[in-house]
Structure formats: C-alpha cells, structure tokens
Design brief:
18 strands, about 450 residues, about 15% strand, alpha/beta, disordered N terminus, 5-stranded parallel beta sheet, 6-stranded parallel beta sheet, globular
Length: about 450
Amino acid sequence: MTRPVFPNIQWSGEGPRILGINPWIFDFAAFNVWSRPVGLLACLDMLRAAGASVALMDCLDRTWSDVPWPKAGKYGTGHYPKEELPLPDELFFMDRRYSRYGLPREQVKEALGALNPAPELIMVSSIMTYWYPGALDALELAAEVWPDVPRMLGGNYATLCTDHAREHARADAIMQGTMETEANWASVWNVLGQPVPPLPENAGLGLALDLYSEPRYAPILGSRGCPFTCDYCASHALYPNFTQGSPDAVYASIRQEYDRGVRDFAFYDDALLVTPDRWLWPVLDRIVHDGLDLRLHTPNAMHVRRLNKEVCGRLREAGLHTVRLGLETTDFDNRHDVKLTRREWEDGARNLLEAGFDLDDIGVYILFGLPNQNLDNVEQAIDHVRAFGFRPHLAHYTPIPGSPMFHKAVAASPHPIADEPLFQNNSIWPCVPGGFNWEDAQRWKQLMQGR
C-alpha cells in the first residue's frame, strides 16, 4: 500500500509536542456544514502561543486525494465518506444504518504512526455528547500507536457527561470546561512536567487554522458563549461567560485564510448580532474596504429581532450568502428562547428581502421534538415560513445535560437519557412519543417541501 501524503501532521512551533485529534462522527447521518473543531483549535492556538509545538489530526477533514469523498455541495458543504458499523446495543430498536463518518481508520492510524518525533501529550476533542464513541475510538487508536503517551479528553461530551467519560474513556485526564480556566490550563502543563506559563492574549478566541494545509472553508469566531439562557441550550454550562474578541484579531484571522485561498467563511458565534459595534461591524467594514471577494455563512442562526434594515444591509454588502434564522416556533406567547414577537419576526424577514437576499439562501429553523411539544404547532410554523418563501428546516431537539430543559426531557423520554448519552441523539427523536419511524419522517419531509 502506498503511504498517503498527509501534510496536516506537521509540528508547528517549538517546545513540548502536543497532538490534537478531532475524532470521527458515529451516527445515523452526518453532513458537513463548514465543520471545524473550534474548541480544539482554540486550545492548540493557546498552547502554541505559550511555547508548545502543536499538530492536528482532523478525522473529518478532506486530506488524502486517494480517499473517495462524496461530491462537494454548495459553498463547500457536503457529505462525508462513511463506513457502516453494527448498531450499538443500546440502539437496537432503530431501523437505520449506523456509520463511522470521516477518514478511513487504518489510514489515520498509518498517518499517526508516521508522525516523528512522537507527541508528548495527545488531546482528543468531543462535540455532541452522543458522538462519544468516535472520541473513545480515537483515544483507543492513540493508545495503540503510542501506549506510553498521556491522553487527555476534552470538549462537550467530557464537560457535560463527565462521569460517563471517566467510566468509559481510556484517557489519563478528563478536562471539564474550557482550557482558559486556571485549573485546566495548569493541568495541561502539569501533565507535560513543564512550568505553567501565563495565558496568552486572546486566549480562547484565537484559532490555529494554519494547521489545515489546503482549507476549503474557515470558521470565524468573534465571541464565546451567549448572554441569553434559552431552555434547550447548554451554552452557559459550556461557556459561563459571554466574551467577545477584538476586531483586529478577528480580521487578521480572516485575512490569513483569505490569502491562502479560502472564500467561504462560517460564523461560529452563538450571539452574532449582540453588541456588533465591538467587533462585527469593524470587521465587516474592513472586508468591504479591502474588497475581499468572499462568502459569509451563519449556520448557527441569527436573532431575528435584531435584523433591522441597517443590519441586513451591512450583512449583505459584506458578502453574507447563507442566512439561517432562529424562529423556533410561531407560538409567540409560549417560547423557549429569547422573546420574539410576531411583528419582530415579520419585520426581520421583510428587511432581509428588501436588502436583496436570495430566497434560496434563507433557511429558518423550527424546533421539533421538544418534551411534550404539540406537533400541530410545528406544522403551523412550517406553513408560516413557507408563506414567506423561505425554506423551513426542522431543528431536531437534542436533550443536552446542563440545559434548563433537560429535566423535562428526562421525564418525557422513555430512554435513560441522563445515564447513557447515546439516547440523547436527536435522530432517535428521544422525546417524541413512539420515537423515530420512517413513515412519520417521510411525512415531515413532504410537509417541509410543501407537498
């Protein structure tokens, strides 16, 4: 077998060597919507700035030309390669195929084995709690290649399901929360046997994007956390403080990737339009001033109530293409998120259209599968969105530990979702009576398409 060329695995920086691994997705379905492990990339950026040498193995990145990869979708999105796996015992009742999404495991192992010199610490990320089998597999693989190198697990699964991770993960340390806390920052350097350096400037907001050798897209991270406390969201459990970065640092990151050929940029902020004067407007103004021909995307959805005419015009002028809105429900008197009136929704929608956005690029998220939800309201919301000419998207509810609504989900679900994260998977419709079935799934698909 010819050894694959893997330009990503190169040491960057001087000092103790730390390898970050973004693991595969284990799930019934997965689609790449400008996916990047921003938490892991922030950690690697901090560590390098503090004197470490870092490298990245992203199992979800298009890396080898000899790996068959599905045809790319719009603006760089698309499907992942996949390998079908047996259903986990806990999910035996599901009539769906379960797969590992991402690069082939054996080629990842070969590429890791070729990394020389070996790492002194391995950090594995975790995103969705129910994707933890991918994180555990990455830890196992690291142990196969370097049995004596310490392994640390961090990210959302490690933070929100810590007891489960401690019981099941083959890790030497579990990191709860973000690295920029005093205890977590010290723990990394203690594992390395190194003195603890001060946190670098812009800690938690800088991203080591240069570790991708041929990026097709890049994230923009101007803030961490969210000032709001929506019932279904665990943002406060993951990032207790809402922090915003400097416009100079954010623009420098965009310009660096733009000069490397990137043209698609996705905002990863949970509260993009909150106090935009602090960083967003200065960044967009510089994009326009410098004539950057790029496309901006908002997969995390924007707060509709803030979409006045000026905001929509500035976003359009700077190159926003993919618009995602968080409507959630048209039952405006009983909302689980930031209060939104019918008038605010209609004004925001109208302002987008008057600013010249293409209807094909505007999608609206509607919550589906909440505990004790009246699904008739979901149908009404779909009809309401389609009446505007927008495309509705069902945002399937994920019961997230640490979110205000989680106790209601535990009471409503027939599954032990508090004990086993696999039951938190929104693909099984964990809080919908009867759970997932193909007949209902097809019916909802037809409703979304207006049939």
